[in-house]
Design goal:
Elements: H1 2-9, E1 21-26, E2 31-38, E3 43-47, E4 53-57, E5 61-66
Antiparallel strand pairs: 1-2, 1-5, 2-3, 3-4
Organism: Macrococcus psychrotolerans
Keywords: Plasmid
Protein name: DUF2187 domain-containing protein
């Protein structure tokens, strides 16, 4: 039973890349780069090089990859 609970709490995806520089490509082909700050359930929050924080809605994202 406890193994099931541990598996349920396990995180997947780019959650583990918090603090790294990522490139996010949108469904329309445009891209943005920045440092991954936080990943709430429906958003991705990154910090651009100029210090601005940007919220991106996950439904607009095609793929994300680490550029470090």
């Amino acid at each position: 039973m406890s193994e099931e609970i541990k598996e349920e709490k396990r995180k997947y995806g780019f959650y583990h890349h918090k603090g790294k520089n990522v490139k996010i490509v949108f469904k329309d082909g445009k891209a943005i780069t920045g440092k991954l700050l936080f990943t709430p359930p429906y958003d991705i929050i990154i910090e651009k090089e100029d210090g601005r924080e940007i919220t991106i809605f996950k439904h607009a994202v095609k793929y994300v990859y680490v550029i470090d």
